[in-house]
Write a structure and sequence with these properties.
By secondary structure, the chain is an alpha/beta fold. The chain contains twelve helices and eight strands. It has an eight-stranded mixed beta sheet, sandwiched between helices. The structure holds uridine-5'-diphosphate and magnesium ion. It holds the Pfam family Glycos_transf_2.
């Protein structure tokens, strides 16, 4: 699937990928949906709309801007309504409460109607200026053009290092290859979006789901700018939980590690028991060995608790999935022009 950005034009990998592509006409222009989840983005949403519209008008294709309000508690929704009233290209999907970015994004993907879909963060960290370049990739025949951050301006050393560690960890344990330094910023064709929206799992690790659907994909290197205004909604606790989500929804390696750890510890304890028996037979048994006993008990107790905790993480997720609740609830939808025309066309053809 995805190859490193460094692959040269005629490397076997690229050749293999070339043959999977079905190129489109040089001047082809698809209808474009921009999907942006927003949670408390009152400082940036208007500027976001301005910059995105400017870029899309320059492209000249029919487009819509799907703004998902993820239960904001500030003026975000009011501003979205104002934008929608003035601009027929804007669509507002107002969720019934805050569901978190991953689900808000899925809600946007469910409601957009363009032939290609571009996912952007509402804080303008993903430059809309790159959309024409992504369309180039689309013309070459790719289904997914995903943004890869060349550097993370305005992010702390700790965040960069932990992100690095996370990609390394998930890369080594997961069965699907999840591209590094890749966020949600990407262009996808309709068929990719259709397949994505069939994945209804409650625990959504979008980076993983994007990678799971596959299809011919190509990276696009870009500089991720600092957020325009406002504050990031992620703290380290949330990031840790995202990492857990990523690992537990894409690999069962921790379950295996727990069993192997159990087996090795049990085996070592057996050896140790044999040694103790031998020692007692040879030298008798004066009352000693209390510290080693305590160490063994504590260590085993710890290992068991970790293993139970790992099991718990998975069982908790099974519990959440079997309830089969809808992913999100929508309070209200204000449609865009593109949405209305596509819906009418679909009604006429059926
Ligand atoms: N976001 C959201 N729901 C949330 C948290 C964030 O829809 O519960 C949106 C947010 O408005 C922004 C995007 O997700 O458009 C990325 O969030 P943020 O900028 O806080 O994350 P970062 O860029 O720091 O990873
Ligand atoms: Mg951001």
């Amino acid at each position: 699937m995805t190859r490193g950005p460094a692959a040269s034009a005629d490397s076997p990998a690229t050749l293999a990928q070339r043959s999977r592509l079905s190129p489109r006409a040089d001047d082809a222009l698809p209808s474009i949906s921009i999907v942006a989840p927003a949670y408390n983005e009152q400082e940036v949403i208007v500027e976001f709309h301005r910059r995105v519209s400017e870029n899309l008008r320059a492209i000249g294709a029919p487009y819509e801007l799907v703004l998902v309000n993820d239960g904001s508690s500030d003026q975000t929704l009011a501003l979205m309504h104002a934008l929608q009233a003035d601009d027929p290209q804007v669509m507002v999907v107002d969720l019934s409460r805050n569901f978190g970015k991953e689900i808000a994004l899925s809600a946007g993907l469910d409601h957009c109607s363009g032939e290609v879909v571009v996912v952007l963060d509402a804080d303008l960290q993903d430059p809309p200026e790159l959309i024409p370049e992504m369309l180039e990739g689309w013309r070459e025949g790719y289904d997914v053009i995903y943004g890869v951050r060349s550097d993370r301006e305005g992010e702390s050393w700790l965040k960069k290092t932990t992100a690095q560690l996370f990609y390394r960890l998930i890369g080594s344990v997961s069965r699907v290859e999840i591209p590094r330094d890749t966020g949600d910023f990407r262009l996808m064709t309709r068929r990719v979006v259709r397949e994505l929206s069939r994945l209804r799992e409650e625990h959504r690790f979008m980076k993983g789901l994007f990678a799971w659907v596959g299809f011919p994909s190509r990276p696009l290197i870009y500089r991720r700018s600092p957020r325009l205004a406002g504050v990031t909604k992620w703290n380290y606790w949330k990031l840790w939980n995202l990492a857990l989500e990523g690992i537990t929804s894409f690999t069962i390696a921790p379950l295996k590690i727990a069993s192997y750890l159990g087996i090795s510890v049990a085996f070592l304890s057996l050896l140790y028991a044999a040694f103790v028996i031998w020692k007692t037979l040879m030298y008798g048994d004066p009352v000693r060995g209390y510290p080693s006993l305590l160490v063994a008990v504590l260590f085993l107790g710890g290992v068991q608790l970790i293993a139970v905790g790992v099991l718990g993480e998975y069982i908790g997720r099974i519990f959440n999935e079997v309830k089969g609740r809808p992913l999100y609830l929508v309070n209200r939808i204000l449609p865009s022009h593109l949405h209305t025309t596509m819906a009418a066309a679909a009604r006429d053809s059926s």
